[in-house]
Amino acid sequence: VSLQGKKEYLIRLRNPWGKTEWKGKWSDSSQEWEKIDADEKNKLGLSEKNEGEFWMSIGDVMKHFDLLDLCHQDKEAFISSLEDKGDKEKKDWNTASYIDSWKRDISSGGSDRKTESYWSNPQFLLDLEDEKDETPVIISLMEIMEKNRNRMDIFIGFDVHRIKKNAPQPLSDDNFSDESLRFECRAEETEWRENTKYLTLKPGKYVIIPFTQVKDKESRFLLRVFSQTKVLSSSVDQPPCISNDDLEPDNTLKTYADDTEWMDAFELYEFIKPLWTENENFPPLTLETARCFLNFIDEDRLGVIGTEEAEKIKQLLSRWHAEFQSRVKDGSNKADVKGLKRMYSVLGVDIGRKVIEAVTTRYADKDNKISFDDFVQSAAKLLNSYSIVEIDEQGEALQKKEAPRDSTTPSRRRWSAE
């Protein structure tokens, strides 16, 4: 307001209890208001009722209050400068919402950008390449409350990185480079449940990475992106794929098995049993594992495979065991799930964070470790799942035509353990 030719900055406050107001300078009945024009007082909505609302000078607010929270009731009220100059009404806002989670050893990589684990945090793409001008964007990260947990032990924040067109997605410690990515800004970690930041972004592509201050903290979260234009945004994860044309592991299908003897799951189990009965370092497998392998190979659903294929399976299991043991560190014959992605990659299976989380939920123990038997089962099931789908250019799964179920001769898949 203007007081005797000088600008006086005031803040309007409200006591949430509805009564008891400020009695000092600029209170409802203070002498300062007598020097203000009546039209200006009406414009400000000055009332002498004891309803809990009152005005204070900014100096008194800073003197009497230590903490100030800004609560915007809706998106349009967030910032007045976003008003469309051609209209009195503000523009509509578009909202994109994502519910995701931080998982220990998988997707809770902490806040330190210099560490490998940081890039395991969930990632979200924001595409502003088609925009001609700078775009106002509000990014809001909110922790989803869980029962029986003290949420004050988690500090949350997020980073925004600008990436080039050809930058790999998702970003990882293996493919990250200063040439493909530029750090834009950070919403610093806060103990509050929600962390919101207003940005004005230039045309281009951006990656939003939510994080917890300390890695391996677990929680679900809601990420919302508000914009005045319909920008493209999406969750970034690696689409599943197998390393060769037939969607089979590691070029293992090279030679046809030309045999006429067949074995079912029980016979296959007995056939591979010497792997652990004759080698004390090889952990025992279960009948379910034999069933998983047979289901993967038995494309015609006849429940049998050839003896030569079974021999290839035995050799393959030996190679898989060697790779698995290289990840075992404490003599428990179990490997940390944080190494699952690399282990699957060695087998020729490239999968994303969501699949790793699903495998961990299904197979890992309370310490987030997985046994060799469970690892083999999960690998066989993943290979079987991806062998009946194709992945299109957008990373979408398309159902392939199944083999006839009334075939009289089992199809022979080509196997090699090398």
Automatic annotation (TrEMBL):
Gene Ontology cellular component list: cytoplasm
Residue ranges crossing the lipid bilayer per the database entry: none
GO molecular function annotations of the record: calcium-dependent cysteine-type endopeptidase activity
Residue ranges annotated for the Calpain catalytic domain, each copy included: 1-74
A Pfam cross-reference name: Calpain_III
GO biological process: proteolysis
Region (Disordered): 396-418
Gene3D superfamilies: 2.60.120.380, Cysteine proteinases, EF-hand
InterPro entries: Calpain_cysteine_protease, Calpain_domain_III, Calpain_III, Calpain_III_sf, EF-hand-dom_pair, Papain-like_cys_pep_sf, Peptidase_C2_calpain_cat
Active site: 15
Family (UniProt): Belongs to the peptidase C2 family.
PANTHER family in UniProt: CALPAIN, CALPAIN-A-RELATED
Protein name: Calpain catalytic domain-containing protein
Gene source species: Octopus bimaculoides
Source organism phylogeny: Eukaryota, Metazoa, Spiralia, Lophotrochozoa, Mollusca
